[in-house]
Amino acid sequence: MSPVGQLEFILCLMLAVLALALVARRLDLPPAAAFILGGGVLALVPGVPALELNPELVLVLFLPPLLMSGAYFTVWREFRANVAGILLLAVGAVVFTTLLVGVVTHWLLPGLPWAVCFALGAIVSPPDAVAAEAVLERLQLPSRVTALLQGESLLNDAAGLVLFRFAVAAALTGSFSIGDGAVTFGLLAVGGVAVGLAVGWVGMAVLRRLDDTQLAITTTLLLPWASYIGGEHLHVSGVLATVACGMLLGWHQHADLSAGTRIRAHAFWQVLVFILESLVFILIGLSLRGVLSRLGSAAEATEALLLPVAAVVATVILSRFVWVFGSDLLRRLFRRWRPGSGPAPSFAVATVMSWAGMRGVVSLAAALALPEELPGRDFVLVATFGVILVTVLVQGGTLGPLIRRLGLDGAEERDPSQLPEEVAWSRVAQAQLAVVAAASRQEDGTERHPRLLEQYGYRARISVNYAANRDIYRPDEIAHFTVVLQAIQAGRAEILRMHRAGEIHDHVLAALEQELDLQQMVAELSRG
Fold it and tell me: Domain residues for 521?
C-alpha cells in the first residue's frame, strides 16, 4: 500500500470510529467492545487491506500517552491510601495468573515447553490500562474501587512485561534464575520511577517558564514519550517511568499551570485519548485476519485449539476471582486478629474487582513480539486474541449492569474528615471576601471598590447559607443558573448578529465568544 493509500485507510478508520461510537452510545455498549467488533467485521470484508501490526511501534505509539493521561488524573491521596491493595493486584495477581495459566496450558498441551506456557501467562495476565479507562469513564464507582482499578491498570503492565521477557528468554536459552529475576525486577521498577521523576521535574521546570499555551500543551505531549523512550533506552521500565512522570505533572499542574493552559490542555488530551483508544481497539479487531490466517485452512488444527484456548480464557477470568476473594479472605482473618484495622471489603466490591479484568493492546503487542522461531507461537497468538475478545466484549459489556445490580453505581463513601463541596466553596468565598475587603478599605473609612465588596459579600453569605441548607436552596440554584444560561444564549445571539452585520471584527467575536463559553461551562456545571 502506498503512503497515500495508508493515509486514506487511516481516515476511513476514523470515519468508522465515529460511526461505531454513535452505535455504541445508541445501544449503551462499551465503546471498546463496539470498536473491536467493528474492526473484526472490517477485517473480514473483501478488499480491506491486510493489517500487520508492528508490536514495538504499537507500544511506543499508543501506550505512553494513554498511560500519561491515566496517571495525570490519578487522585494521589487515594492512590497512596490504597497502595497495598494496588500492589496486590498489579504484582500479586499478575504473578498468580501467569503461574496458573502456565500450569493449565502445559497440562492441556504437554508438548509445549514450560517457558512458552508461562510466556502466554505473562502476556494475558495484566488487565489493560486502555481497556480499564475506556470502561471506567462511563461508570460511577466508589472512590476506593476506582483507585484500585486505575492504580492497578497503571502498574500491572510493567509486571506483566517483565515476566514476559523472563519467560521468552528462558524459552530461548533454557535457563532462568528466580533470584536474578527478582533483583532485575526491582532494579527495573526503581530505575523506571527515578527516570520518570527526573523527566517530570525537567518538564515542570520548562512548563513554568512557558507563557505560550500552545508551546505548553506541545510540551505535555512530548513528555510521555520522553519518559517512556528514555526509560527503555536506559533499560528500566518505560511503563513506570511514564506513570511516575504523569503523576508528578498531575500533582503540580494545579499550582504551576495557568488557567488557560489547563482548560485547553484538558480539551486537547480528551480528544487525543479518544482517538488513540478508538484506534487501538479497532486495530485489535482488524488484526483478526492475521490471527486467523496463521491457523491456515486446516479445520482439524482449528478444532484442536478450541479447547485449550477456551481453557486459557476461563483460567484468566477465574484466577482473578480466586486471587481477589482469596486475598480479601486473608484480610478478613487479619482484621479479626486486629479489629481496629478497618472494615473488610464487601462482597459487591470484590465481585466487581474480580470481573473488571479486561485485556487489550499490551497483551496483543506482547504476543506479536514473540520470536518467529518460538515453539507454539501461533497458539499463543490465538489464545491471546481469544482472551482479549472475551474479556472486552463479555466482561466490559456486562460490567455496567453488574455494578448497577450490586448497587455500587453512584455510591460514594465520603471521608468524614473531609469537607463537602458546598462547605469548601463557602471557605473559598470567605477567603476571597477578606482579600477584597482589605483592598477596598481606604484610610478615611470609605470604600474604594464598594460594588466589588457588595458582590463578594453577597457571594460569601449565600455560600454559607447554601452549605447549611443545601436541599432548601438547590431548586433556587437550578432556577438561577437556568436564567443565566438563557442570558448567555441571548448574548451569544447578539454578538453573532453584530458579526453578521459587519459591526464587529472577528477578533472581537472570538474574545466575546470565549468569555460567554467560559460562563456557560460554569453555569451548566452548577446547574447540573
Answer: 475-528
